[in-house]
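User: Can you help me understand a structure? I only have the sequence.
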Amino acid sequence: MSALRDRLPAYSLFAAIISAAGLPIYIYAPAYYAETYGVSLTALGGVLFVLRLIDVVQDPALGWVSERLTRGKALAVSAGAALLAISMIGLFAVAPPIDPLWWFAITVTGLFSAFSFLTINFYAQGITKAGPAPSGHVRLAAWRETGALLGVCIAAIVPTVLMGMTDNPFATFAYGFAALTALATLYMWPEWKGRIENSPMGIRDILSDRLAKRLLILALFNATPLAVSSTLFLFFVDDRLGAIGWEGPLLVLFFLAAAISAPLWSRLAARFGAKPTLLTAMVLAVLSFGYTLTLGTGDEIQFAIVCVLSGATIGADLTLLPAMFAKRMAQVSPNGGQGFGLWSLVNKMTLAFAAVVLLPLLEQAGFTAGAATNPDTALTMLTLLYAGVPCVLKLVAIGLLVATQLEDT
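Assistant: Let's start by predicting it. Here is the structure, written out as tokens:
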């Protein structure tokens, strides 16, 4: 009852929409445009990298705008949600009226610009919603990230389920997403208060704060493994495991494990501290990635177990790290807009790394999306990129977290 009175379910639903527009698009969109329109993986990776360069300027600027929105915040957020829905429809439901690569670039630009604006405002608003008590940030994060992970689950499974029911499952998904976006926007409307508090701190001041800067660097290394595995997931399942038809169920296992585990990790953090709880999850992630290196054709069941275990670790990543950063922003930059502009940029840079570095490497190794067979060298490269790179990055993240002194460990 308390959560309903606090309207925390509104945060869950809105988080679900934002997440459904983010990570799953990196799972499906490159493969969809490569297989449907014959666009090369290298070209798609190049487009995504250029968009991330734009984000270097855009996300901090959107954070600055977020901090200065007053009574018009609800309308501004609604406009961002409308752009998000329209861009999703353009990406998946509209046949490219121009060169598919350019159409991909235009629609993804709209999608991720709206995604950035909504994410920054949403997380900044959470600072005020959570209140001054440290436990408030973890409690809000549990509701918010559980909703986000459920949104990812829905976005991951719906296109696969629809494949046997409609000629264009991605178009149906896009229109359904637009309808749900409208509903979530209306439900969240009362939460958009005006100007939160005038904060004198800018980006330079935030980056000069030792703990805030360390948490941003930690987020970069800790989130990149998820970006890597998400970008290469469909290729790994179809071509390395030969498990065509398992994509949807495996994605659901992964993200459902993350969603179920999120409130459990938050309870463990409340009891044992955020730092040791997150370290435990990160070690489990390394073990999961390490075991994945041994898998090959026919190992669907073993990989399903890996999806459950590694998915559970993502629940900790997505719940505890944002709560740590929000807690710090509440102290050094109460408005939170520019702080979460940087947070959004860091998380999208992880996806840029996956797109601009890994996709061209995979293509250069002889891998062809949608091919009946791929050479062994290409499949070996796929395994190393999918599991080996995340394993190394997680180890770096563990070292950074061990060396980071938090006020509440």
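Now, to help you interpret it: The two ends are 30 Å apart (CA to CA). The longest helix spans residues 300-332. Let me know which part you'd like to focus on.
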